[in-house]
Write a structure and sequence with these properties.
By secondary structure, the protein is an alpha/beta fold. It contains 13 helices and 20 strands.
Amino acid sequence: MKAVTFRADLVPYVLTLAMGKVNRKLYYSRFSCVRYEEVREPVLPGDDWVKVKTIYGGICGSDINMIYLHDSPLLSPFASRRFVMGHENLGIIVEKGENVEGFEVGDRIVADDVLSCEPRGLERCPKCLSGDYNLCLNFTEGRLSAGTIMGTCADTGGSWGEYYVAHKSQLFKVPDNLKDEEAILIDPLCSALHPVLRNFPRDDEKVLVIGAGIIGILIVASLRAFGSKADITVIAKYDFQGQLAQRYGADRVIYSRDCDVETMAEITGGKVVKPLLGEKYLIGGFDRVFDCVGSETSVRDSLRYINSGGALVLVGLGSKIKLDWSLVWFKEVTIKGVYGYGVDPVDGRRERTFKIGLDLMASGKMDLSPLVTHVFDLKDYKKAIEVASCKKEYQSIKVLLKP
């Protein structure tokens, strides 16, 4: 089958780093770590698995980080050396093992991409027993090659290929009333639901969402879908992003070109402080900040704008960030990192995040179809990566690949 693959071998890695400095597009040239090539179709690892024909594979911000080699080498042990890319998935079951019940060949499914203990054939670790599959202690163990999620594991394939395999514990049927272009958004929706449901604001709080890519927009949408009346400010980079943020419930959008500490003081009633050296910051400010960018600038701004005793939720994946941490202890800021999803609290119970998201979309409370802006054939992956990377030029939100 044809697939877009990633090779983390030393030679292509070093070569890609060097070439990318000359031309950004060389990060995904035929000499780079990213290839479009013929690979073997994945086979069922056991009787608890299904084989899925891909309908769509989404391009995630984490895929873009991988392609441009922005990921921290610290996490390299938790991925295979070579694998088919793509964890945002939607497909049709074409083969199933004897032990798979409740699903049939021909069913349209999405797979929770986390490769925790159960898919690996292991007794569940303490994190998996509590429903925190995203924090599994065994991402390098068991019957599967290393990989935290599908799309980083050599044995499962990924949605940037024609077929992938998934364990029965990962499977969710897509409700009939959801279009393909809605169902494929379950992964980014869950990536927003998880930080929102674990860090839900009080109605009297002032909330700041930094970044208006798809996750930032979906954080706003998720807050409103679950009834939050908090005052929500979004910092967006581009006009089209800001318009969508307001459509999904932001009280106001501040564009990064116009954003300054005085504006934030006016919104929150905070007091501007000017140090002897360095940037001005607020005393008072936003009670809760969702940083959906994960850059050195966004984390620094989060600390400048957050209220004393506030909560900073780090949603965007960042690495190698250098900061002056003085405001963390001076303001007694609580910092919470979030990664993936698993089981989350909803309506007084705990539920798989995928089910929460699918139920939410199927209920009609949240129409996400405007967020799919581009679809490309798999063979045109280079153009798809360019479009997903150059948001201003192409006004891209979610870019899909279709084998």
